[in-house]
Amino acid sequence: LEERGRCPHHLFDIVSAPETWSAGDFRRSALEVIRNGSPKKTLLLVGGSGFYLQALTLGMFEAPALDPAARELLRQRTRDVASE
Fold first, then answer.
1. How far apart are CA 82 and CA 77, in angstroms?
2. What is the phi-psi region of residue 41: left when phi exceeds 0, alpha when psi lies from -120 to 50, beta otherwise?
3. Among candidates 58, 65, 69, which has minimal Cα distance to 27?
4. Half-sphere exposure of 40 (CA within 13 A, CB side)
5. What is the structure's pLDDT at 78?
6. Which one of 4, 9, 20, 55 has the largest count of C-beta atoms within 10 Å of its C-beta?
7. Distance CA 82, CA 60 (A)
8. What is the pLDDT of residue 29?
9. What pLDDT sits at residue 61?
10. Sign of CA dihedral 17, 21, 26, 28
């Protein structure tokens, strides 16, 4: 907390563990920070994976959300395979 008080941090601790947050969500949020940031300040992108940097710089394709029933079916199948 002391370190975060010395310089602004963005998109840090904004999603709790049970929530889903995709690389596309990150890209939209990061672009908003970049657009609304001060033009006189340098922004650093740190942490995460190279995939998130790629999503930010190269973009993402739009895909529909997975149907909750399909998601549950996949979870069940994963449990079944893991228990074999």
1. 9
2. beta
3. 58
4. 0
5. 92
6. 55
7. 32
8. 92
9. 81
10. negative
